[in-house]
Amino acid sequence: MPMLDHPAMLLGAFPDLQVEPEEARSILRPQKDERYGFGYALSPYRGCGHGCAYCYVRDYPHPLHGPDGWGRWSSPKVNAPELLWAQRHKLHGQRVFLASATDPYQPLEREFRLTRACLDVLLQCPTTRVILHTRSPLVLQDLDRLKAFGARLSVGLSIPTDDDTVRQIVEPKAPPIPSRWAAAERLSREGIQVGISVAPLMAMVDPQAFARRARESGARSAWVGGLRLLSADPFYRVLAHHGWLKVLDHEYQAEVRAVLKAAFPPASSRKQEARTPAPKPRLRITEPHHPPLFEGA
User: What is this structure's pTM?
Assistant: First the structure.
């Protein structure tokens, strides 16, 4: 595969981000997360322009920018598609998680198209399953490719809160929450398997309404992930200042998980309900009466 051409003028398109293209030495990292099974993580970028204030990757600072520079730099791995092509033999029967330490659809993807090029390689690996994880509606630019994978691909959309004012504080550079719901709805309409990733769980106004919105978006699943704080994490002060320390409470996490679990029952339960015929109504003559509270709700 020919190496992608990235004109220098593209680097000026992101004035608030230090763009540092690099040639990576490897592109596939063994992935052992129990949620996804064994396989590989694939990150076409190092660093992330979204710069979420809570991101655990802040623990791996850039040698020049230090720990406080997170979100101010990103390094496109310009040879990522070529490396992936050369290592595609490893992917037979495997799962690829795109991406674990960066958003594959961060703003730079508009210009560098590295995620798109990697998807083109993965399309040619017919026994490989792909899990895309993003918080950006930019994923829709590759809708044709995503549909081409069929059942081999699923998309996880990160929506950690139902309140965009919370998002503006903890994820100020990331896309607004309404645009993520719109992306979930569009992907679902196009037949792509979508899951809502409430990770890390942030403060919510109404978890019940959030669960209904997730279900109505066409998503097939939803899961909650807890916040991973670093040692002496300054993000703790952000939570305390805004009165959001409840996100660290296991009971609060369990409450939101229970609400989502009720909205997305296990597939086996849904199949059983579908197979169980509704009882035939029996003709009864009764006196008129006032319905009890919540009847028919």
Answer: 0.82
